[in-house]
Amino acid sequence: MHINRAKADISKEIMSQSYEIKKISDITLAYARKLTNSQHGFVSSIDTDTLENVGHTLTDMFGAQCRVKDQRFSFPVGKDGTYPALWGVALNTKTAFFTNTPSSHAGAAGLPEGHIPLDNFLAVPVLIENEAAGLITLANSEHGYSSRDIDSVTRLSEIYALALHRYRYELERDSMENQLRQMQRIEAIGTLAGGIAHDFNNILFPLVGFVELLMEDLPAQSPLQESAREVMNASLRAKDLVKQILTFSRQGEQELKPLKLQVVIKEVMKLLRASIPKTVEFRLRIDEDCGQILADPTQVHQVIMNLVTNAHHAMQDKGGVLTLELEEVDIYSLKPEVIGLKPGRYALMTVSDTGEGIQAEVLDKIFDPYFTTKPKDKGTGLGLSVVRGIVKTGNGDIRAASTPGKGTTIEVFLPLISKAALDETQDPSNALPTGDESILLVDDEAAVLKVMTLMLERLGYRFRIPERPMQEAS
Looking at the DSSP assignment, which residues form a beta bridge with residue 295? Predict the structure, then answer.
């Protein structure tokens, strides 16, 4: 009678529009205790991302009565992928069991300080498609446990599995809605950033142009040359910043050029050294003879920044060693069929840390968009997915390996540019093109038009600026 009433009450809550896993868990635990005459118990589910056993309801076996210091009711999976203690036996074996002599059971691992004594113990895993999705645990039955109690709680677990199924669905739906809102926010920010960057470019173009003209007009030994060069350097840094903004907003085109990774790595490490605490030790192992790659410098800078920053975050609590290595490798010797790259020579950049490491079940997800193990205010989950996109676009590959408790290693393979291709990208002539053709100049910025006319005049071109540019363009 009790079991049928329990199923009816739980089913009613599952179908309710105001669904709450906490309320359903309370009902489940109340009926489980009544069916078995148990004083204590808890009901939990497995977090599909972290595999933690997270409690939804519990008696005071973990509360004020037993004065357990850690009030957060969540148990992590062990480093070996199994769950500890008596309750872990049911999850590890996916099998219900009971013991009326808990202290002598093979799975007993002792009790935390202040925990209530266990006279007897019962645990039933909640299974979804033969996978452990949750747990119903009971303790200290007045009459001791029997196979009949296992049968009763197992029937309860079957209906509770439906509750967890909906719970997972609700979580997934919420996650998808959050991702959609995040994408919309990023799109809006990108549109705004792109607009600002284009406007800023209209300011930078004449600034750079007029400084170039000034440097041409000034005598080579003029003391003003140094000042003009400083203005030019600052303008070019601003240009690079605009390019980064346009890359973020996906409105900028890639500027592929031969690039020495050694230079970019050293620039990034110099930039980050001041912001990373002394508890993190930097180790660089750079092959100065490593060949060049064909890539966009801004995007490569972004890749290295993201990887090094992530490695630092993994060690920010306890410190450690951050190692960045660069070497030239022949992909033939690295089993290309496994790596998924075309045979040839590659630059292999390796970023490793001695942090907490990443669990195997989480490692496969770190390159997924919006996936992050960081707190909500610490990351968006976009960094590594952007890194992977940049690397894949450059015909490279990225892979990760991690050992929980020891650290993580990220390897990035980027194809080296051949000597023939390198020669094609390098124009032997630095001379500016000249001519006497007529050019129609159209721009909505007066300063841009002015600097363009001055430059074209010096190169010998004739030009005309229409009074009504839109009509002439049509």
Answer: 257
Angle between helices 147-217 and 224-248 (to 10 degrees): 150
State phi, psi for 114 to the nearest 5 degrees: 90, -5
pLDDT of residue 365: 76
Is there a domain that residue 188 lies in? Answer: no
Strand ranges inside 27-148, DSSP E: 38-46, 53-58, 74-75, 97-99, 121-128, 131-141
Establish if 458 belongs to a structural domain: yes
Q: Is the pLDDT of residue 262 over 80?
A: yes
User: 30 and 79 share a domain?
Assistant: yes
Q: Rounded to an integer, what distance in angstroms lies between the CA atom of residue 177 and that of residue 153?
A: 35
Write the CA distances from 363 to 50, 367, 402, integer angstroms. Answer: 11, 8, 8
Of residues 386, 388, 395, the one with CA closest to residue 256: 395
The one-letter code for the residue type at 453 is T
- In a domain, residue 184? The reply is no
The single-letter code of the amino acid at 399 is R
The DSSP result for 194-262, as a single string, is: HHHHHHHHHHHHHHHHHHHHHHHHS-TT-THHHHHHHHHHHHHHHHHHHHHHHHHTT-SPP--EEE-HH
Kind plus residue range of the DSSP H or E element containing 438: strand 438-440
Least confident window among 111-115, 200-204, 213-217, 385-389: 111-115
- Which residues, 6+ apart, have CB-to-CB distance to 261 below 8 Å? 290, 293, 300, 326, 347, 349, 414
Q: State the CATH number of the domain containing residue 38.
A: 3.30.450.40
Measured on CA atoms in the order 326, 328, 333, 335, is the torsion positive or negative? positive
Whether residues 356 and 458 fall in one domain:
no
What is the average pLDDT score of the chain?
A: 82
> Is the full-model pTM beyond 0.90?
no
The answer to whether residues 18 and 155 belong to one domain is yes
Tokens of 120: 């007897």
- CB neighbour list of residue 132: distance below 8 Å, 6 or more residues apart: 46, 90, 91, 94, 125, 126
Backbone phi, then psi, for 321, in 5-degree steps?
A: -120, 125
On whether the CB atoms of residues 307 and 367 are closer than 8 A, the answer is no
**Amino acid at the residue 252:** G
Confidence of residue 68 (pLDDT cuts 50, 70, 90): very low
Q: What angle do CA 310, 406, 78 make, to 5 degrees?
A: 105
Task: Return the structure tokens found at 282.
Answer: 């930097």
The answer on 398 and 322 residing in a single domain is: yes
One domain for residues 164 and 59: yes
Q: How confident is the model at residue 65 (pLDDT cuts 50, 70, 90)?
A: very low
> What six digits make up the tokens of 473?
């363009």
Q: By the 8 A CB rule, do 113 and 100 touch?
A: no
